[in-house]
Design a protein that fits this description.
The chain is α+β, with helices and mostly antiparallel strands. The chain contains seven helices and 13 strands. It is globular, with a radius of gyration of 23 Å.
Length: 293
């Protein structure tokens, strides 16, 4: 469904884990999907630097059941230096050994959800990078609809974690109508879920920052920068030209838009009539001060 730049996607899966950040080692899921997880699913289906999503609401079709189990996790990470070494000589790098019983792995508990289903409604907006004539919201709405209908995605979306794959489908009707229809098919009331969830993670990237957009420079843009540099250096001596080229190579920006750093933000989550309101214009988003009191 797309109305006033709003789209709705139905997602479901056998397992889900929307990890609470306050749990340091073992994963414990929130009772329902977080806005950041919803955004991740939509961006897996379609995303371009010229547009971004604002999660409007998450409707709970099937809340799921709690499920506790143990799984193997890796306790080490690959360093950047190891990656660079591997690029030149793979034999000098010792790979991380995943799986039970290895030195690099361990078993940890997970409290997850089983058999969940949601309706994600999001607003599609463009960024300042949409500066070409065909960079219109309508174009992106049509592309999202086409890909969702055909089951296409850039990578398989996950329900909180990658190993819990999400199935998805396009919703033609109004989300409230779709919720009522699915509730009737499942033989329960469409507004049966009501719960105050307290403080919930909203996202790790501020929507106001994402509105600036980010993309790597195109080949023709990089070539234009190099031509401008050649023109600027033509009157200099060879030694000065070499020095300026090294400085330019070290400092030249290869991207445009705004590079943002992750910072967790939270909101007070309430499910009312099976709907979790998430739009940043309607909910108060709290960003904790690192190191503050």
């Amino acid at each position: 469904m797309k109305t006033n730049h709003l789209i709705t996607i139905r997602v479901w899966g056998d397992f889900a884990c929307f990890t609470r950040p306050e749990m340091k080692v073992e994963r414990v899921s929130y009772p329902v999907m977080t806005p950041s997880a919803a955004r991740g699913i939509l961006e897996a289906i379609f995303w371009e630097p010229q547009m971004f999503y604002l999660i409007d609401a998450i409707r709970v079709v099937k809340k799921g059941r709690w499920l506790s189990f143990r799984r193997n996790e890796v306790i080490k990470v690959i360093s950047v230096d190891s990656v660079r070494t591997w690029m030149h000589d793979p034999e000098k790098v010792v790979p991380i050994q995943a799986g039970g019983g290895t030195d690099d792995g361990t078993q940890r508990n997970m409290l997850a959800l089983q058999d969940v289903e949601y309706l994600i409604t999001a607003e599609v907006r463009t960024t300042p990078l949409a500066n070409r004539s065909d960079d219109r919201v309508e174009k992106y709405l049509d592309e999202i609809q086409r890909r969702a209908r055909q089951g296409k995605c850039f990578h398989r979306p996950g329900l909180g974690v990658r190993e819990f794959a999400a199935d998805f489908d396009w919703v033609d009707s109004d989300p409230d109508v779709a919720l009522a229809r699915r509730a009737a098919e499942l033989c329960h009331l469409p507004n049966q879920f009501n719960e105050d969830l307290g403080l919930m993670l909203y996202d790790v990237f501020d929507a106001r920052e994402r509105a600036h957009g980010f993309r790597w420079l195109r080949t023709e843009e990089i070539d234009a920068c190099e031509r401008d540099l050649d023109t600027a250096l033509v009157s200099l001596k060879n030694g000065e030209q070499t020095k300026r080229r090294k400085e330019d190579s070290a400092n030249r920006r290869r991207w445009t838009g705004k590079l943002i750093k992750p910072q967790p933000a939270f909101f007070h989550a309430r499910i009312e009539n099976s709907k979790l309101d998430c739009h940043p214009d309607r909910v108060q988003i709290l960003t904790p001060t690192i190191g503050g009191h």
